[in-house]
Amino acid sequence: MTTSLTLRRPDDWHLHLRDGAMLQGILPETARHFARAIVMPNLVPPVVTGAQAAAYRDRILAALPDGMAFEPLMTLYLTEETDPADVAAAHASGLVKAVKLYPAGATTNSASGVTDFEKVRGVLEKMAEIGLPLCVHGEVVDADVDIFDREAVFIDTVLDPIRRATPGLRVVMEHITTAEGAAYAQSGGPDLGATITTHHLVINRNHILVGGIKPHYYCLPVAKREHHRLALRAAATSGLPCFFLGTDSAPHADPAKESACGCAGCFTATNTMSILAHVFEEDGALDKLERFTSLNGPAFYDLPANDARLTLERGGPVTYPDKIDTGAGTVTVFDPGFALHWHVKP
Ligand code: NCD
Ligand code: ZN
């Protein structure tokens, strides 16, 4: 039995760090294990311009505790007013590594997202030309499409047409939750990647709804049926280059989750590496974990893999805090529902 595993230091290719006191409180949870992260721009107001991304990057670095190394990889929030020249300049300076597309109304802080995809055609064409990836929240928002079908419908009616209309556009399907998403990503060639979260490898929709509603398991895209979870497990543990980790760790203060209208988001930064080692071990794929957490993502983003290493050791039960105290309230850490035995070596 494998009891020790040394990987190149992992990166998180989809992360919410927020701002202010929340940023300060939760940043160490990621920086403790991860070298870099693609930082989502859905602040209020959103990070739309290169100048806003530069200022946000400075705030993240200022919030980093002394002695911790972490590189935020910045993104811009695509709006119908986004200026292709600003995007190109932010990319050329090395500041911005991706642009994020939220269909307006699809998720937390997405009101400034895109409704009319024709209006962003110029930006997408510029991105295809300069090789800047588009990170896509892949759900339609039509009221008449069932929430459990919104990802599959998005692939057919929005994503595939955009990719056909914009040859060369590099796309990351963010936090895929369905067998259809995994199959589409796998068939898309080298310009298409997909992130998979920690929690979607662990929970299905029953975990949210059976035996009482569990607000800390609610996120968007919402977890689907068991057969989709199994398809995601197969994708993540396959080692295929198109699949890489994006935790989508998304902190909300507990009162905002435990509410009559609770926010979407699971907070997994604290225990992701222990959970992933458990999942990959269960599927007999520990030898594929490094590709998922540390190799496939950098290769897609044309960045070097990290030189530093992270070691996991199998042992007694892993202890971690149930909640992280932040100046913006407590944040509940994702409970995988089973004991963890893979310790990240300090
Ligand atoms: C994210 C958030 O809270 O910002 N929530 C979530 O459920 N994943 C937004 C997102 O990535 O959809
Ligand atoms: Zn997210």
Structural descriptors:
13 strands; alpha/beta; 3-stranded antiparallel beta sheet; 11 helices; 8-stranded parallel beta sheet; 346 residues; TIM Barrel; globular; binds zinc ion; binds N-carbamoyl-L-aspartate
**CATH fold-level topology:** TIM Barrel
Radius of gyration: 19 Å
CATH class: Alpha Beta
CATH superfamily: Metal-dependent hydrolases
The topology string of helices and strands comes to EEHEHEHEHEHEHEHHEHHHEEEE
Task: Tell me, briefly, the overall form.
Answer: globular
- How would you write the strand order of the largest sheet? 2-3-4-5-6-7-8-9
Strand count = 13
Overall pLDDT level: 97
Bound molecules: N-carbamoyl-L-aspartate, zinc ion
> How much strand?
15-25%
CATH architecture classification: Alpha-Beta Barrel
Please describe the biggest sheet, giving its number of strands, its sense, and whether it closes into a barrel: 8 strands, parallel
Unreliable spans are none
Helix count, DSSP H or I runs of 4 or more residues? 11
**Helix content class:** 25-40%
Multimerization status: single chain
Structural class: alpha/beta
Distance from N terminus to C terminus (CA atoms, Å) equals: 22 Å
Count up the domains.
Answer: 1
Molecular structure report:
By secondary structure, the chain is α/β, with parallel strands linked by helices. 32% of the residues lie in helices and 17% in strands. It has one domain (4-344): TIM Barrel (Alpha-Beta Barrel). The protein is built from eleven helices and 13 strands. An eight-stranded parallel sheet has the order 2-3-4-5-6-7-8-9. Strand 7, helix 6 (179-186) and strand 8 (192-196) form a beta-alpha-beta unit. The protein is globular, with a radius of gyration of 19 Å. The two termini are 22 Å apart. The structure holds N-carbamoyl-L-aspartate (NCD) and zinc ion (ZN).
